[in-house]
Amino acid sequence: MIMRKKAISILLAGLFSGAVYSQEGPGPFVANLTGQGEVPPVESTVGGVGIFTLNQDSTQLTYHLIVHQLQQAAEDGTRLTQAHLHCGQEGVAGPVVVDLLGMIRGGVAAPLEVRATLADANIIQEPDPNADNQTCADVLGTPITTLAELVQAMDAGNIYVNVHSEQNPPGEIRGQLTSITRGAQPPGEQPPGEQPPGEQPAQ
Asked: Helix or strand or coil: residue 134?
């Protein structure tokens, strides 16, 4: 468990290097994925992180999705099936706007890692039957039809990452996307002078 957390922290430290922080425009964006972020909360044995970075001409959004095991699961443990971007503020369930994973029949156990790139063609504009046939316009008051509009919604804190499972089809772990350039702290890192809960500073 401790080794796995350290590995995630090292990975994030590399991803959020000076080269990433120095990019112009919004982002990069990060979401810390937990079962407690779901609506309603879920007691999950997995956790994760989603990192989204816009290219220099703002035409592509590259993402890195990581789901890891938090504790030893039973043989019939969490089976991950889908992952999406949804429209909605924190604490609100909203419609899908981007498919990040596709449907995995039968599910797959953590760890799971996905890297891909999004463009305008990846935006889903149809009403979501799993969200009362709502669209982003219904929950945000403005439609999302392009990558630029998606990034604007992410920058406003109105987009979240949701990973689904066989055990919890509406969502297993979830996290709101927040811009690192607006002062958000990447998961696994602590502000200077602060220690994670339960840890004491070195003597």
From this structure: strand
199 is a domain residue: no
Q: What is the CATH number of the domain that holds 162?
A: 2.60.40
To 5 degrees, how large is the angle CA 84–CA 189–CA 191?
125
Residue 203: inside a domain: no
Closest CA to 55 of 11, 102, 19: 19
Joined together, the tokens standing for residue 172 give: 């297993």
CB 13 within 8 A of CB 5: no
The answer as to whether 195 is a domain residue is no
- Exposed, middle or buried: residue 2 (CB in 10 Å: 0-12, 13-18, 19+)? exposed
| Residue 22: inside a domain | yes
By residue range, what is the domain housing residue 99? Answer: 2-182
pLDDT in tens, the chain (203 residues): 444 444 444 444 444 444 344 456 688 999 999 999 999 999 999 999 999 999 999 999 999 999 999 977 666 689 999 999 999 999 999 999 999 999 999 999 999 999 999 999 999 999 999 999 999 999 999 999 999 999 999 999 999 999 999 999 999 999 999 998 765 555 544 443 444 334 444 43
Task: Report the alpha-carbon distance of residue 86 to residue 174 in Å, rounded.
Answer: 10
pTM (2 decimals)?
0.81
CA-nearest of 187, 152, 165, 156 to 31 is 187
